[in-house]
Amino acid sequence: MRVFNRIVVILLLVGLITLGAYTVVYSFELFGYQLSDLSALLNGFTGGVEGFISDVEDGNLPILTIALLAAIALLGLILLLMEFKPRRPRRVRMQRGTYVTRDVVKDEVTSAAEETPNVLGSSTTVDAKRRPGAKVKLRADVRRGQDTKAIKSDLRERVQQHLARTGVPLGRLKLKLVESDPRQTKTRVQ
Amino acid sequence: MTNGILELARAAGEAALATEGVHSLGTGRYAEAATYEGTEKFTGVVVKPDELEIHIVANYPLARSIPDLARLIRERVAAESGGRRTLVVVEDIEVANEGL
């Protein structure tokens, strides 16, 4: 939602700057623009709005406009609900009164992953859940032609065991194995 | 039991540091974790009216699980917390370089 809020603020500021620039240009009659032209321009705009409103009142809107308005209303509702949703915590809750940063969980997962035979490298994303536990996405590089199913199961087991040993509750573990060229991965020879 | 919040923070920080498995006190990840009083501050412990937040960096490899470490810290700090609820935040892990 932060991105959305930022977009809204940027659009609002761009609008204000444009409005300010128009006001200055028309007020000081710069570049041949006259203040009297502005009222004609505004009349055109208000006329358009009035026409639209009377079309709404008469129920004369084209189906495309109705669909667009419905989509905007739906988008507004979704964004409103998303705004009400509490923020995801920054730290991973372990138990009552104990927190661990996502970087610590990430280091632990990476260390477990890279100790797994046939894993050449890995990248990990950790999200904190609202409940105790971390949501982990792990992408591991393996050589081409290897038994990915067996590696995946071994990797899952090692990560789960490692986190259980350190006491980090694992909420969800998503694994993705990518066949890579060993010359381009972190661990070249194993 | 200590009176000033800075003294309390210091005492709690020292108690936490004395716990086996604690490498150092953390500085805060997203905002500075410190207690301020007058012109002084103590980093690593945040004293709130009803809560004491202790930020630590744990030693790696971990001698015990993180919840166990947090429990030990809580036990050590209990005498200094002035009845506040103690939160332990593990900010990082530091690889021990003994024998290297």
How would you sum up this structure, described in words?
The complex is a heterodimer of chains A (190) and B (100). In chain A, 55% of the residues lie in helices and 19% in strands. Chain A has 190 residues and is of the alpha+beta class. In chain A, the strands form 2 sheets. Chain A has a 3-stranded mixed sheet with strand order 3-4-5, with helices on one face. In chain A, strand 1 and strand 2 form a beta hairpin. In chain A, helix 4 crosses helix 5. The longest helix of chain A is centred in the first third of the chain and has 26 residues, at 2-27. The two termini of chain A are 43 Å apart. The mean pLDDT of chain A is 86. By secondary structure, chain B is α+β, with helices and mostly antiparallel strands. In chain B, the strands form 2 sheets. In chain B, strands 1, 4, 5 and 6 form a 4-stranded mixed sheet that branches. The longest helix of chain B is centred in the first third of the chain and has 13 residues, at 5-17. The interface between A and B is medium-sized, with 17 and 19 residues.
